Amino acid sequence: MAHKPTPQSFDAGRDIAAASDRAPLWGRNVRLILVLLVLWAALTFLPVYFARDLLFSFLGWPFAYWMAAYGAPLAYLLIIVAYARIMNGPED
């Protein structure tokens, strides 16, 4: 049977040192999340705001329809893929 760590067996000093080593990585992660969140908001609200200006036809449908039906979900998927690739780090 596997040994479960108990609070008494936990090395608190080592955890504090490990947490301070992770602080720069966490800050980078938060900045990345904020940048991607701003990109998500722009991709969500800017096409809606400018929808009346996007009145030209694209393959027989209004371009605003194509942006909402295909462009935004594809952009959201690309944001998720970018976040996953960045968080996985460089390939060795």
From TrEMBL:
Keyword Membrane belongs to the record = yes
**Which InterPro entries does the record associate with it?**
Na_symporter_ssu
UniProt keyword terms in alphabetical order? Membrane, Transmembrane, Transmembrane helix
Q: Where is the Sodium symporter small subunit domain?
A: 24-88
Ranges annotated as spanning the membrane:
32-51, 63-84
Task: Note one Pfam family from the annotation.
Answer: DUF4212
Q: What name is this protein filed under? A: Sodium symporter small subunit domain-containing protein
What is the originating organism of this protein? Bordetella genomosp. 11
